[in-house]
Predict the 3D structure of the following.
Amino acid sequence: MKHLTLAIALFLCLFGKAISNDIITKVEENWNTIESMSGKFEQTDTDGKILRGDFFFLKPFKSKFVYTNAEENIITNESLLVIVDKEGHKIESYTIGNNIIKKLLSNVVSLNKEFDLVGFETSDNFHELQLKIKSDISDNQINVFFSKDTLDLKKWQIFDEFNNKTELKFTKIKKNIFISQNLFVVKYK
């Protein structure tokens, strides 16, 4: 009886892993068909402060977050995260390095090659992938939520090395639309 119980547990574990690998493959394939994306976002920071606005992704590596209730916006490219004022003038910038968002916004994402899968969960509405960049010794992690039905990006939670969480929820998403390169231009005084 003990061996039968162990065999059943092993089967269920392997079956669960096979299902999660199939879902991860489908999420990856869907994500890689997206060249551009825009919509609305709601950001909750570690202090519980909520900011809202519009987001724009243009692969590879470009993103812009235009906040409706803040004085600054964020633009990223392959090497920098730039905080800009409402007119697009640089306020300050930070090197991105091997950043999680940079990896997600590359032309083609290979989740198994770029990330370690820390966890995988499926609920009624979402598939949640808990990811860390391979060879990153920090505690940085991202939990990415995709719609169970459409596999569209719905939310991400980013945890920094101090376990501070920033969460972004994405709505009113439009995929593979024209987004001008000019949207990501940073002005210098």
Helices lie at 2-32, 100-104, 111-114. The two ends are 76 Å apart (CA to CA).
